[in-house]
Structures are given as structure tokens and as C-alpha cells.
Amino acid sequence: MVEDLLAGAWQSIVFGAVGIALMAAGFLLVDALTPGKLRELIWIQRNSNASLLLLANQLGIAAIVFTAILTSYTDFAKGLASTVLFGVIGLGIMALAFLVLDWLTPGKLGEVICAEQPHPAARVSAATHFGAALIVCACIA
After folding, report:
1. How far apart, in whole angstroms, are the C-alpha atoms of residue 37 and residue 69?
2. Contacts of 35 (CB under 8 A, 6+ apart)
3. What is the reported pTM?
4. Can you tell me where the transmembrane regions are (predicted)?
5. Which of 24, 29, 136, 138 is the most exposed place for a label (fewest CB within 10 A)?
């Protein structure tokens, strides 16, 4: 019984670390997709457009990791590998969704996201980002 608890605790720690690493990668992804430094845009300039996009990204990655763990293989190594794989796929799909939306709309979406004034396109971009993550969640389940 204690061994099962310790094994479960260890697996929780590892899955948690993988989830945090994927969310950090999501931060870097949004930073790469938008001009300027995301840290400065959100924490210093208090840019609501950039924070909305990052919020959608972080929730999207969390949903993907959650779904991957919930539907995981009984074998820990396979479950961990699938969580990492689907997390990386999710990041790629979200980046692709951002680029397609940028291509379909006037101007540069990254510049709109960095604008000081709230912009409706930021909400559309956030919804597209999160929607892409939900598609990956459905594929996992």
C-alpha cells in the first residue's frame, strides 16, 4: 500500500514537472509569435491583449496535459511519453492556428496583440489558440 502511494506520488511529481515544462514552452511560443518581450508586455506594460493570448495558451496546454494524463496508458513510461508528444503537437497546432489567423486577417496579428489598447482581434486570437488546444484534447480522448 505504501509502495503504491509512493509510486503514485512520484508519478504526480513527474507529470507535474512535464506539465510545467510544456506550459513554459507555451510561454516561449507566444513570446516568439509576438513582437517584443512577452514578460515586459504583460508584467511591466500590463498589456491586456498579450495577457489574453498567453492566458488562452496556458489554459490550452493545461487542458492538453490534463487530457493526456487522464486518458494515459497504464504503463507510466508510455503515459509520460504520450503526454510529452501530445503537448508538443498541441504547441505546434496552436502556433499554426495563430499563423493561419494572421494570414486570414488584415495587418500583422502580432502587432495587434502588442497594441496598448484592448483590441477585439486579441479575443479572436485567444479563442483560436484555445480552440486549437481543444481539438488536440479531442484527438487524445
Report:
1. 32
2. 110, 111, 114
3. 0.89
4. 12-30, 51-73, 79-101
5. 138
